[in-house]
């Protein structure tokens, strides 16, 4: 059964709009990378009393969540990551700006992938293996929104290709008549 062209166009428009909204939400939020240290700070199961035992209540919370533009700690204000375009008197061409943006996003991606490995290596060097069980490092819901946006964009492209195929078949039928 052939799919009507209106249904394909509607599906493409809906998937495209969904992709845009999800990508805008993902880019604008600060939950791409989450470090949760609540179990460590509360002295949960397996907590070591050696270094932090008596002064545990005096420590500043280490939990944080990071986005593409800033990093936020629990009881501290958010700190922006470096943005090369904030300088007012900086004249950068559009192509240079796009290249800088691409390099910045690539650097952030490498940083996120490297952070967990660096943390584990630091724990091994410090021989505090029980510490790793108390610190939760994970990707957040902002990254999930970004991936869902990507999938919606793929569905948009597939719907547009299907609509183009339907139009091509209709033209061939009209020419054959």
List the helices and strands and how they pair.
Blueprint: H1 5-28, E1 33-36, H2 38-42, E2 64-66, E3 70-73, E4 79-80, H3 94-126, H4 129-134, E5 136-139, H5 141-176
Antiparallel strand pairs: 1-2, 1-5, 2-3, 3-4
How would you describe this protein?
The chain is 59% helix and 10% strand. The protein has 177 residues and is an alpha+beta fold. A 5-stranded antiparallel β-sheet has the order 4-3-2-1-5. Strand 3 (70-73) and strand 4 form a beta hairpin. Helix 1 packs antiparallel against helix 5. It is elongated, with a radius of gyration of 24 Å. It starts with a helix and ends with a helix. 11% of the residues are buried. The model is unreliable at 50-56 (pLDDT under 50).
Tell me briefly what this model is.
The chain is an alpha+beta fold and 177 residues long. It is built from 5 helices and 5 strands, in the order αβαβββααβα. It has a 5-stranded antiparallel beta sheet with strand order 4-3-2-1-5.
């Amino acid at each position: 059964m052939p799919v009507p062209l209106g249904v394909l166009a509607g599906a493409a428009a809906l998937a495209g709009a969904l992709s845009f909204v999800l990508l805008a939400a993902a880019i604008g939020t600060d939950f791409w990378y989450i470090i949760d240290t609540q179990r460590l700070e509360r002295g949960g199961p397996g907590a070591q009393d050696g270094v932090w035992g008596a002064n545990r209540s005096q420590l500043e919370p280490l939990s944080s969540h990071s986005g593409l533009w800033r990093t936020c700690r629990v009881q501290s204000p958010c700190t922006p990551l470096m943005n090369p375009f904030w300088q007012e008197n900086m004249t950068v061409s559009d192509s240079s700006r796009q290249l800088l943006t691409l390099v910045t996003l690539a650097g952030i991606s490498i940083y996120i992938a490297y952070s967990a490995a660096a943390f584990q290596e630091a724990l091994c060097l410090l021989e505090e293996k029980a510490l790793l069980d108390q610190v939760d490092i994970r990707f957040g819901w902002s990254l999930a929104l970004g991936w869902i946006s990507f999938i919606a964009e793929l569905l948009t492209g597939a719907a547009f290709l299907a609509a183009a195929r339907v139009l091509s078949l209709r033209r061939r039928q009209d020419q054959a008549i």
